[in-house]
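JOB MANIFEST
job_type = single_chain_structure
chain_count = 1
residues = 189
[input]
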Amino acid sequence: MILTKNFRQRGARVYTKAQMQMMESLVTMFIFFILVVFGIIFFFKYQQISLQEQETEMLAQQAIDISLTALFLSELYCSNGESESVDNCMDIQKLRGIEQFIDSHKQDYYFDMFGYSGIYVHQIYPEKRNWTVYEQVKTVTLENGEKVPADKEPTFFVITLRNNLGLNSSNQTVYGEFGYGYIHVEAYS
């Protein structure tokens, strides 16, 4: 009897000790899986932020590419009758008629070159004037059905504007008048 009583006490202790070790193992596994879940969540959030940054960088690069294409557009740059053109210069006479020309060829040629973007030329001096060279706005439909413009990245370049025999805004004939301004390009994502 003493043996049985001793055995029961010892067995109860062994059972309690084993139960404690099993609980420790379960708690350790639970903590490990929580850490794994937090690691996965952190990784996916990091990836999401990284993809957004890459998208922003790509949109900025696209805006710069469109700006450079517009700056060297043969339909607009200043030429002096020789084979070379003037750098960062746009001819005002060409700007006056370019919007209708580009609109008539937007789908078959210019959309491939500029895509969804807006190209605007602003003259600051000697007088303020604005021209829209190209405009194709990309819209996004929201959940409520409302259409809004997509995200856009603006870029600006300083340019020279030349009015080489034409009329200014006061209808006075000018010969070789130079002004300055900037080209404003908006690229849509």
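[summary]
The mean pLDDT is 83.
The chain is about 50% helix and 30% strand.
exit_status = 0
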